Each structure stands twice: as structure tokens, then as C-alpha cells.
Amino acid sequence: MDDALALSALVLALSGQLVQEIHTQVSRQGFEGLRPVHGFAFARIAAGDTTTADLAEHLGVTKQAAAQLVGELAGKGYVVRRPHPHDARARLLELTETGRAATRAADRAARAAVAPWRAELGEARFAELVADLARIAPRGPIRPGW
After folding, report:
1. Mind telling me which SMART domains this protein's record contains (predicted)?
2. Is the pLDDT of residue 1 over 70?
3. pLDDT of 146 higher than 80
4. What is the Cα–Cα distance from 11 to 15, expressed in whole angstroms?
């Protein structure tokens, strides 16, 4: 296999493993009923000043799909809708304490998921890998691989 195909396969495999491991660990910490896409939504909502339209753009979905996702998260107690101070038609999305706790659980899970990689490569090589990937990774939202 040539290097380009090998790299593609490896990055995709690691990405899938990472998403699944984070999801599994968050579920084990008591945050059931969440799907991996919810973590991508939480990341945008946690940044602040997020409307459903902003979330749709971030996730690369329609406004209707984002509204359905927001409704699901609100129904599960992870998100609340607040009045927008400058647009009476829009609502700002905010994580509840449960939503923030789920985000903290995902952060812990991400650190735990990459700990074996860090151990395998060693601190210096791991830091180099992170720096190398940061140089070539696309800027902008991190979206689920629909």
C-alpha cells in the first residue's frame, strides 16, 4: 500500500477509535442516551453565543436537523434555550449543568483514550505528532463523519 493510502486508513481508524472510546467512557460515567454527534454539538454550544442556525452550520446539517437535535438535547436536560438579546426570533443555546458535566466527562475520556498513544510514543514523540498534525489539520469546526 502506498503511503498516502496507508495514512488515510490509519487516520480514519484512529479517528473512529477515538470517537467510540470517548462515547463509551462518557456513557459509563452515567451520561446515557447520548450519541457521538451530541459531543460535536456540545463543543459548539459550549463556545457561547450559539443559535440553532449556528449549530447547523457547525455540524454541516440543515437548520431543521439542528432544531431536532436541540429538541432532543433539551428534552434530555443537557441544553436550554434562552432569549437572544438582539434577535427576538432566535434563541441562544446554553449547556445545563448536566451538559457541562457531560462535556467534562468527554474531556477526561479523550485524555484517557490517547494515554496509550502517549505511552507508546513517549512524551517527546507524542508532542511532535500533535504539532505535526496541528500543522496540517483543517481549520474550522470539527464535524462528525456523516
Report:
1. HTH_MARR (SM00347)
2. no
3. no
4. 6
